[in-house]
């Protein structure tokens, strides 16, 4: 440690990263779906320990500075202290329940970005950083962190050749979440209806009293689509959904669209790990969780029959009590 700290200080002061720190290994983690489809995997970058230390130093100080100047959008709950999935869900559902108590319908548009972290354009991100009053040496260091990165993939004890990383913030790196928050922070500009963000999870919603309210919501959706085009962050139209939260038997109908493509309506949506229904009932979420637990229990029962006595003891002691 005594030898490492002066070296880290020199690297930060000069804004230059040693070539070895610019390399990262990568592996792909299955998100969901068919294992044979490459698009179902999330690439994870594994950087060296010294690189992670540098990233953590810069990220923690930069986050403290940005929070002190109240830079972040108030309803961005991703990767920020004292904010979480739980706080976002609590505030979102509180809004919906409040409108329901007023006998109002709420239309919510859930937006899905296509590979958001991998598509962040380096030059556009750096231009936003330059407008934040960040010291030039830190800007230069971040530029090296983004632009001079190389990666390789390891599989079955074999490494691929090194390749250049031309866009995106490396998933798995300490600094990447903060850089993404900075990049997406101006998305809510000029949006008048309600908008909530958890990193790249975006929901746009509004109480609907008259057809004009739906038109206003569509207008704000158009503003977001324009931002996506300018920021080179396309939406995955097949995963974008519209849901109407209401207790009314005859809810207001409106066809929301993205670039003239209608958004598919849904009666339930998995938002930040919770399956929300149009009536905001827990029954859908509980049913899905119980079904998943039943499948897992069936897997354990089938495989424990063939397990060794030691494995059975471990299961009885550690798995069953939970």
Automatic annotation (TrEMBL):
This is Putative rna-directed dna polymerase from mobile element jockey-like protein. The keyword Cell cycle does not apply. The keyword Cell membrane does not apply. Keywords: Nucleotidyltransferase, RNA-directed DNA polymerase, Transferase. SUPFAM superfamilies: DNA/RNA polymerases (SSF56672). Residues 10-276 form the Reverse transcriptase domain. GO terms for molecular function: RNA-directed DNA polymerase activity. Coiled coil: none annotated. It comes from the Eukaryota.
């Amino acid at each position: 440690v005594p030898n490492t700290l002066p070296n880290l200080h020199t690297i930060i002061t000069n804004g230059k990263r040693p070539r070895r720190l610019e390399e990262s290994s990568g592996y792909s983690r299955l998100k969901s779906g068919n294992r044979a489809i490459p698009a179902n995997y999330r690439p994870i970058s594994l950087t060296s320990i010294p690189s992670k230390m540098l990233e953590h130093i810069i990220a923690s100080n930069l986050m403290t500075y940005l929070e002190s100047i109240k830079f972040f959008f108030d309803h961005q709950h991703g990767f920020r202290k004292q904010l979480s999935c739980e706080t976002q869900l609590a505030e979102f559902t509180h809004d919906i329940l409040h409108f329901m108590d007023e006998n109002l319908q709420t239309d919510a548009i859930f937006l899905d970005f296509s590979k958001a972290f991998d598509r962040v354009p380096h030059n556009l991100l750096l231009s936003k950083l330059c407008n934040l009053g960040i010291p030039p040496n830190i800007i230069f260091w971040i530029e090296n962190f983004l632009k001079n990165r190389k990666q390789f993939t390891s599989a079955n004890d074999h490494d691929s050749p090194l390749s250049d990383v031309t866009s995106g913030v490396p998933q798995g790196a300490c600094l990447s979440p903060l850089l993404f928050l900075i990049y997406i922070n101006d998305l809510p500009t000029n949006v008048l209806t309600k908008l909530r963000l958890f990193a790249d999870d975006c929901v746009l919603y509004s109480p609907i009293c008259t057809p004009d309210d739906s038109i206003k919501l569509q207008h704000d959706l158009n503003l977001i689509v324009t931002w996506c085009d300018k920021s080179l962050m396309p939406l995955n139209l097949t995963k974008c959904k519209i849901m109407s939260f209401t207790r009314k038997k005859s809810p207001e109908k409106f066809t929301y669209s993205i670039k003239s493509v209608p958004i598919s309506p849904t009666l339930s949506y998995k938002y930040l790990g919770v399956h929300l229904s149009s009536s905001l009932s827990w029954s859908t979420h509980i049913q899905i969780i119980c079904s998943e637990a039943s499948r897992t229990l069936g897997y354990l029962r089938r495989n424990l029959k063939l397990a060794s006595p030691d494995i059975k003891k471990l299961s009885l002691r550690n798995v069953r009590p939970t």
